[in-house]
């Protein structure tokens, strides 16, 4: 089948988009998920693990998954990531308390995050360096479209069903995509896939018993529990644990037998020994140390309330642990024979430069994602979260359009120039937003900086990925792509905390200059004029954040121009050959 590679890439891109949508799908569903876990809505801070758990899975495991994709192949990792994503969706949909919700979200993050480096590396496998721009732009565009549709998808499902239906849809889509990717890959002559094997019926039976018994443990159907006979299956032998019931022990026992079967069968349902060998070859100890370092950074910033602090109360301890893990990781790389990051894998300037540029892009991008809706709610839509979110949609819609154009321009211009142009446009958009006042969003002109900013960010996505892929060897493309994604996510976490803190200082300074409420309101406890003055102070905060984001975007532009100069992302023209020969 001549078109199988392109169809495979299209399926992988759809999977990436769906995983990106799942990143934002909890925005509207979070209150209902809290209720499902028995958490009062007014204790929003207790729901932080639902978000941070996904981030931990998405970011901390990416380097290991990227390395496995280099060692075992893109298609097996794509299929495995989709299956893990589907499993996480099932666990989340059936969750009955906070630990199970967090576990499900963590698995979703691992699966969804693993799709990104495998897909980017697949582009590098299918296209030469000078032709990767447009495919990378299309992948980035589809991913950003998923981010736009995520909240809308969540709102649509919540309009007709409860929050669990969102993750049941994820389960079905994940399984269908895994099946399609496997079938299309087996028909392709250019993608290496494992040989077809017979079906392990015993393993399949054990998997079904594990699944059915496990679902019953999660759901605990009231009809069965009230039955005099079947109800005994749900009575715990000790404590109150659901897993220490007869049906829970059946699920555990079937799972253990399934693992044993997969480890000993000649043709197992899942080649566990093979995956274990690959994980060992990928340097599991190094991956654990790096994951701990990343987890410390994520928890320090993700669990903080940016309105009052840069780090959470335990943030310094998290960062200290991250620093120790990072030192141990570096020492480990020097001593091991098979390191997670092979010696010299990122030695070329554009390779490590892409991570640095991606960090500042993330730091600037998060300001748009968070503070544009905040500005809208502060000024013209104080009582409508939906209308405030629709203001951000104007920015997000321009992103995929810019991503496609950025991929096209990468064919024609140096990656550093394309990235710089995009980030300069983003900076222009932010500086324009920094001039907004109380009534600015009522004007149609306010759409221009939103479109310019989103367009600029989109343009910068493809050349950054093209630069890192063109500057690394084929056997580390998955790892290099993973590090670029990790850098962007870490930049977003650090950026939102730093920029919000700077903005709050401006807010407090402006608020200090506001006269007392009694002076403004002639002795009354509140009046419209005093509320207007407080809104102006809030606007000053957002203007400061937008200005700081513009600075981050300009830093990314300068770094791209300097660090991407040697990135071979374009086809060499006859004129270039003659000039180099001369």
From TrEMBL:
It is found in: Cell inner membrane. Residues 8-568 form the Major facilitator superfamily (MFS) profile domain. InterPro entries: MFS, MFS_dom, MFS_trans_sf. Its main location: membrane. It is a multi-pass membrane protein. The keyword Signal applies. Residues 1-19 form the signal peptide. Coiled coil: none annotated. Keywords: Membrane, Signal, Transmembrane, Transmembrane helix, Transport. The chain crosses the membrane at residues 47-65, 77-96, 102-124, 136-159, 165-186, 198-219, 243-263, 284-304, 316-333, 354-376, 388-409, 416-438, 450-470, 482-504, 545-564. The keyword Flavoprotein does not apply. It holds the Pfam family MFS_1. PROSITE patterns: MFS. PANTHER family: MAJOR FACILITATOR SUPERFAMILY (PTHR23501), VACUOLAR BASIC AMINO ACID TRANSPORTER 4 (PTHR23501:SF191). This is MFS transporter. It comes from Nocardioides hankookensis.
């Amino acid at each position: 089948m001549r078109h199988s590679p392109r169809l495979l890439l299209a399926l992988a891109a759809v999977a990436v988009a769906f995983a990106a949508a799942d990143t934002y799908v909890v925005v509207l569903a979070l209150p209902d998920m809290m209720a499902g876990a028995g958490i009062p809505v007014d204790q929003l801070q207790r729901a932080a693990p639902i978000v941070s758990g996904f981030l931990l899975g998405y970011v901390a495991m990416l380097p290991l998954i990227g390395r496995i994709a280099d060692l075992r192949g893109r298609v097996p990792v794509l299929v495995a990531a989709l299956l893990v994503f589907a499993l996480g969706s099932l666990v989340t949909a059936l969750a009955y308390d906070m630990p199970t919700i967090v576990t499900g979200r963590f698995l979703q993050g691992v699966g969804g995050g693993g799709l990104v480096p495998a897909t980017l590396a697949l582009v590098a496998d299918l296209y030469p360096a000078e032709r990767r721009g447009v495919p990378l732009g299309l992948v980035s565009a589809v991913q950003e479209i998923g981010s736009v549709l995520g909240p809308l998808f969540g709102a649509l499902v919540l309009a007709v069903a409860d929050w669990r239906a969102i993750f049941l849809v994820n389960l079905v889509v994940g399984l269908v995509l895994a099946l399609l990717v496997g079938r299309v890959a087996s028909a392709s002559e250019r993608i290496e896939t494992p040989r077809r094997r017979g079906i392990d019926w015993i393993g399949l039976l054990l998997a079904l018993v594990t699944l059915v018994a496990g679902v019953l443990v999660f759901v605990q159907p009231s009809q069965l529990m009230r039955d005099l006979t079947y109800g005994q299956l749900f009575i715990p032998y000790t404590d109150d644990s659901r897993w220490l019931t007869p049906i829970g022990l059946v699920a555990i026992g079937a799972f253990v037998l399934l693992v044993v079967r997969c480890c000993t069968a000649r043709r197992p349902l899942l080649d566990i020994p093979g995956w274990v060998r690959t994980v060992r070859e990928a340097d599991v100890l190094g991956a654990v140390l790096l994951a701990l370092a990343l987890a410390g950074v994520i928890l320090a910033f993700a669990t903080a309330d940016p309105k009052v602090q840069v780090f959470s109360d335990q943030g310094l301890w998290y960062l200290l642990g991250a620093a120790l893990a990072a030192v141990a990781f570096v020492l480990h790389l020097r001593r091991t024979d098979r390191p997670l990051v092979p010696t010299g894998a990122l030695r070329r300037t554009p390779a490590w430069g892409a991570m640095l540029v991606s960090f500042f892009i993330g730091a600037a991008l998060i300001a748009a994602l968070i503070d544009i809706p905040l500005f809208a709610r502060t000024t013209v839509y104080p009582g409508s979260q939906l209308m405030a979110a629709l203001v951000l949609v104007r920015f997000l819609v321009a992103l995929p359009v810019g991503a496609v154009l950025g991929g096209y321009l990468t064919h024609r211009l140096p990656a550093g120039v394309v990235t710089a142009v995009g980030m300069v446009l983003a900076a222009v958009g932010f500086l324009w937003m920094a001039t907004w006042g109380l009534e600015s969003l009522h004007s149609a002109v306010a759409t221009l900086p939103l479109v310019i900013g989103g367009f600029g960010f989109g343009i910068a996505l493809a050349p950054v990925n093209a630069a890192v892929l063109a500057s690394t060897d084929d056997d580390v493309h998955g790892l290099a792509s993973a590090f670029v994604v990790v850098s962007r996510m870490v930049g977003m976490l650090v950026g939102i905390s730093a920029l919000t803190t700077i903005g709050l200082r401006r807010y407090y300074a402006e608020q200090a200059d506001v006269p007392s409420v009694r002076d403004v309101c002639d002795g009354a406890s509140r009046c419209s004029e005093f509320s207007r003055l407080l809104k102006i102070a809030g606007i000053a905060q957002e203007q400061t954040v937008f200005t700081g984001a513009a600075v981050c975007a300009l830093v990314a532009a300068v770094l791209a121009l300097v660090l991407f100069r040697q990135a071979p992302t374009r086809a060499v023209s006859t004129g270039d050959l003659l000039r180099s020969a001369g």
